[in-house]
Amino acid sequence: MKLVVAVIKPFKLEDVRDALAAIGVQGMTVTEVKGFGRQKGHTELYRGAEYVVAFLPKVKIEIAVSADQVDSVIEAISRAARTGKIGDGKIFVLNIEQALRIRTGETGKDAL
Asked: SS3 for 55?
């Protein structure tokens, strides 16, 4: 089992959700986060005053999948989230040692 974590631009969330639904992903966790990478934030103009926005709004998506689904999930996310501009995001894949569905007590792949 794997945990796929993607940090993307907020306006791409619906595109990513649709792409994942098309390949059979049934659930995900979405969190609004802030951060920066190579782009180092940006400056904005508000009421004539310029100020620096150091942390940019992003969306973090977490999806628990079986190991054989990882490649298709990564491909779906990267295709749907790509704009070709700096700040498109990152995808990380982590191992899941154990999963348990609280309601039924199912464990492992059955809990996903």
From this structure: coil
